[in-house]
Design goal:
The complex is a heterodimer of chains A (about 290) and B (about 500). Chain A has 2 domains: about 90 residues, Elongation Factor Tu (Ef-tu), domain 3 (Beta Barrel), CATH 2.40.30; about 160 residues, 3-Layer(aba) Sandwich (Rossmann fold), CATH 3.40.50.80. Chain A is built from 9 helices and 17 strands. In chain A, α3 links the parallel β9 and β10. In chain A, α2 runs parallel beside α9 and α5 runs parallel beside α6. Helix content of chain B is about 35%, strand content about 15%. In chain B, the strands form 4 sheets. In chain B, strands 3-2-1-4-16 form a 5-stranded parallel β-sheet. A 5-stranded parallel β-sheet of chain B has the order 6-14-7-8-9. In chain B, strands 10, 11, 12 and 13 form a 4-stranded antiparallel β-sheet that branches. In chain B, a hairpin with a 5-residue loop joins β11 and β12. Classes of the chains: A alpha/beta (about 290), B alpha/beta (about 500). At the A-B interface, α1, β8, β15, α8 and α9 of A face β5 and α13 of B. The structure holds flavin-adenine dinucleotide (2 copies), iron/sulfur cluster (2 copies) and FE2/S2 (inorganic) cluster. One flavin-adenine dinucleotide (FAD) binds next to β4, β6, α2 and α9 of chain A.
Chain lengths: ~290, ~500
């Protein structure tokens, strides 16, 4: 059992969890992920490592509510326990002396950028980080990334903060202005990663993306996570999650991620319905006593 | 003649004339609507009646047909005397997992294949009897924890909790060693838990074996991926005196044909793991979903293929097909499973191989293009090689495909353990007498050494490894093994 020692809301439907996982926090490296299971009936869900504190044995993950499992995890409280935290899984991000690195994060892809930016910076790269969200209120981890990088640039789709546009608006401008970039790493929603890769293809900038297909075991046993990279089938959990972005078949991946939409919706609706009833009952309870 | 209980003693001839007692089982139409075990098992009366059929050969051939040489006539005699618990313990002298082996061993190729009755009559139902006594022992709470010798102070890590790892752990614990199992998944049991379905091997049977280990003092660490959290070398740094690697053959093979990544195309490992380990048949009570369409095609002819197709019927498929490139005769699945699949309405396409999958715009598989095959000369495996018949292509409409064409070994441990020798298939190379690898102190056994094989072979390898590990950690030279083996061999005959 793995204790949640601190849980807090970062923005609507997005929570940060600090989980005690002594051994794992010592072994994990930037770019790896864990698999969480809430309880005995629970699904195994992969979550990126958003922060590591080896000294205190604490792991940070940031969970966005998109369906039943992420919703029920986000209802957990400080002091609650996850049944399982498996990892560290996947191959750590490629950290070497590239020169100028641009780290790009979107949505819940922003937290895992932090350990990567830190690691790249530590070995002497110049690190520019670009993060983006739909609107100012949904922007997370700004302070953390400001500390982790030399320079932090921000975009919002609606222009409420930073550059008006997408992370690729900023990236494109950097390229157009003749800024030298040796390497880009992008983590975020598939459309964002696809757009980043489209931006760096022409100028031939080495671009890594961290893929998040559907997974079950996370150890290479099931093949649920298969993605096509460079025309070959790869298992994202053991061969990745980072891949050469210019080789990834994003369209296939997008379709594969919709495989269970129907079931997911059913489970999520039922979860929300149950929760609604529970809350309504709880609200009624004191009234009963008075009657 | 009358025995001491006043029961009439049968002559050999009379015994041979008793017909084999079939095992009562669920009707096919009922069982495809549930995940309960198909056979109900023998009653004590049926078991005793079946035991009467054994003629107690002075030189029993059946024993040599069993990879771990269970003393078959001895345990059968105890059944006929009504000593079911004694019979279970007799089996356990050489086979730690009778409840499992009685259910899943390919008896028709092993012990029962060489029973003397096989020539003229039907063989004694050794597997059914083994299953019966193991169940009896478990259900009557007669599981005896043997008295453990004083602790040796040695610590052994067992990586993987399939039949190989469970057996090594049980044996070493009984020799007084501290054993800690490291299992990557959240439940111990290996293929027994994530692969073989409930209707063939109830999970409670596996859980009972693991409980037994815990009672022997074995620690079981789940959700612990060796090679990721700790490497094998780091385990040695954690003061383990030896490491046993029983990580199985868990890497699913695909056929590398067009359309294999379409939605609806599963590896058997994923399909079975979702259904068994994650209990997707119980969605949405359990959170993990599984997709099963109307027409499910399963590729392959082994136990894994039979398990997948029978699972798909239970999950609501209207048509469950087995698509196999050779003929019925070459199918590696247990006869009983093929028979059960037929009863349940599985449709077989023999001498057929898929060439590509056809999908719709949303990326879902809709059809499978196949080609007809014919059998040519025997290949290295001794089975006749299937050759495609040109121009014989045809299309089957499918919405789910399960690829069950075998597994390879997971490269995680070899990759993270320098100096660990593997062969060209990635299997760990060991000395067969000791199961020690090229790295002193690292032992291996089961599917990670042999490639996909059987439960009893994995368990047998675990036995051999346990004996050698004991010697290794106690500083007893391996050479003595040979002497002992000779002795045992002469005693056995
Ligand atoms: C390597 C990796 C790292 C990830 N990191 C994070 C993270 O840091 N924070 C975060 O909020 N999310 C992360 N995800 C995505 C997260 O795993 C899914 O959002 C979660 O599984 C959804 O579960 P659910 O039951 O709430 O939603 P569901 O209703 O099950 O699914 C909603 C959508 O989430 C995706 N999804 C569903 N199941 C899985 C699964 N087992 N694996 C991957 N995706 C799935 C699908 O596209 C699906 O349509 C990561 C995924 C991967 C593979
Ligand atoms: C669907 C199916 C049906 C079968 N039916 C039969 C049958 O009817 N009869 C029969 O005799 N045989 C059958 N077999 C074969 C039999 O199950 C295997 O031969 C046997 O389970 C092999 O045992 P093992 O101990 O070597 O490995 P496994 O049972 O494969 O167990 C290996 C374990 O190691 C764990 N592991 C792997 N890597 C790591 C790591 N790095 N760290 C920690 N843990 C790790 C895995 O999670 C797994 O739990 C079947 C196999 C399958 C897949
Ligand atoms: S272990 Fe398997 S082969 Fe041996 S006697 Fe039992 S059923 Fe037969
Ligand atoms: S060979 Fe058959 S009849 Fe003979 S002892 Fe074995 S089980 Fe009994
Ligand atoms: S998640 Fe099962 S192989 Fe990657």
């Amino acid at each position: 059992m793995f204790e949640i020692i601190d849980k807090r809301e970062l923005c609507d439907k997005v929570y940060q969890f600090k989980i005690r996982a002594q051994h794992l926090a010592k072994k994990a490296k930037a770019g790896q992920f864990v698999i969480l299971r809430k309880d005995e009936m629970g699904e195994r869900v992969p979550m990126s490592i958003g922060g590591l504190d080896p000294a205190s044995g604490v792991l940070t993950v940031v969970i966005q509510e998109v369906g039943k499992t992420s919703a029920s995890m986000n209802r957990m409280k400080t002091g609650d326990h996850f049944a399982d935290v498996v990892g560290p899984l996947g191959i750590p991000s490629h950290i070497e002396k590239f020169g100028h690195c641009v780290c790009i994060g979107g949505g819940v892809g922003i937290p895992p950028i932090r350990p990567i930016a830190q690691a790249l910076k530590e070995i002497g790269n110049k690190v520019t980080t670009i993060i983006g969200s739909r609107t100012k209120d949904l922007l997370i981890f700004e302070q953390e990334l400001r500390e982790a990088s030399h320079e932090l640039l921000i975009s919002t789709d609606d222009g409420s903060y930073g550059t008006h546009g997408f992370v690729t608006t900023i990236l494109q401008k950097m390229i157009d202005d003749g800024g030298h970039i040796d390497m880009v790493i992008a983590i975020g929603p598939v459309p964002m990663m696809k757009a980043v890769v489209a931006t760096t293809r022409e100028p031939k900038i080495k671009t890594y993306v961290s893929l998040n297909p559907i997974m079950v075991d996370g150890t290479g046993m099931c093949g649920a996570c298969r993605v096509t990279v460079g025309g070959k089938t790869r298992f994202a959990c053991v061969d990745g999650p980072d891949f050469d972005g210019h080789e990834v078949d994003f369209d296939e991946m997008t379709k594969r991620m919709k495989m269970y939409v129907r079931y997911e919706k059913q489970a999520y609706d039922r979860f929300l319905q149950d929760e609604h009833c529970r809350l309504a009952k709880a609200a009624e309870a004191p009234k009963d006593k008075n009657a | 003649m009358v025995d001491k209980n006043g029961k009439k003693k049968l002559t050999t001839k009379e015994r041979m004339q008793i017909p084999r007692n079939p095992m009562p089982e669920q009707e096919p139409n009922d069982r495809i609507c549930n995940f309960d075990e198909v056979p109900y098992g023998y009653t004590p009366e049926l078991a005793m009646a079946e035991a009467e059929r054994c003629i107690m050969c002075p030189k029993p051939k059946c024993i040599s047909g069993c990879p771990v040489e269970v003393d078959i006539p001895a345990f059968i005699r105890m059944i006929s005397e009504g000593d079911f618990v004694g019979a279970a313990r007799k089996i356990k002298e050489t086979n730690a997992l009778p409840a499992i082996c009685g259910r899943v061993c390919p008896q028709e190729e092993q012990c029962e294949a060489v029973c003397v009755l096989v020539k003229k009559y039907k063989p004694v139902a050794i597997g059914y009897l083994e299953r019966f006594v193991a169940n009896f022992e478990r259900e009557h709470a007669e599981i005896r924890i043997p008295e453990l010798p004083p602790s040796t102070g040695k610590k052994i890590a067992v990586v993987g909790s399939g039949p190989a790892g469970l057996t090594v752990a049980a044996d070493l614990a009984q020799m007084g060693h501290k054993v800690i199992i490291f299992e990557a998944l959240h439940k111990p049991g290996g293929v027994l838990i994530y692969g073989i379905p409930e209707f063939r091997l109830p999970k409670k049977v596996v859980a009972a074996e693991v409980d037994y280990l815990r009672k022997l003092g074995v620690e079981v660490n789940t959700s612990y991926v060796v090679g990721k959290l700790d490497t094998v070398d780091e385990l040695f740094e954690m003061d383990f005196d030896a490491v046993f690697v029983g990580t199985g053959a868990g890497l699913p093979n695909f056929m590398r044909i067009e359309g294999e990544n379409l939605n609806g195309v599963y590896s058997a490992n994923e399909f079975l793991t979702r259904s068994n380990l994650m209990a997707a048949y119980d969605f949405p009570e359990h959170d993990t979903p599984i997709f099963v369409g109307k027409n499910v095609a399963v590729l392959g002819g082994g136990n894994t293929a039979m398990d997948s197709v029978r699972t798909s019927l239970r999950l609501g498929a209207q048509n469950g097909y087995i698509v196999y490139r050779r003929s019925r005769k070459e199918m590696p699945a247990r006869i009983e499973e093929i028979h059960h699949a037929e009863q349940e309405g599985v449709q077989f396409h023999f001498l057929t191989n898929p060439v590509r999958y056809i999908g719709n715009d949303e990326g879902w598989v809709t059809d499978m293009e196949c080609i007809k095959m014919e059998l040519g000369e025997p290949d290295a495996s001794g089975r006749r090689r299937p050759i495609p018949i040109e121009g014989s292509n045809f299309v089957i409409p499918v919405d789910t495909v399960v690829v069950a064409v075998g597994n390879s070994s997971n490269p995680l441990i070899p990759r993270t353990t320098p100096g660990l020798e593997t062969n060209k298939w990635g299997n760990i190379v060991v000395n067969e007498k000791t199961m020690m690898s090229s790295r002193p102190g690292i032992f291996a056994g089961g599917d990670i050494v042999t490639g996909g094989a059987t439960v009893i072979l994995a368990a047998g390898a675990g036995k051999v490894a346990a004996r050698a590990i004991h010697k290794y950690v106690m500083g007893i030279p391996f050479e003595e093994e040979k002497e002992e083996e000779k002795e045992e061999a002469t005693r056995g005959t």
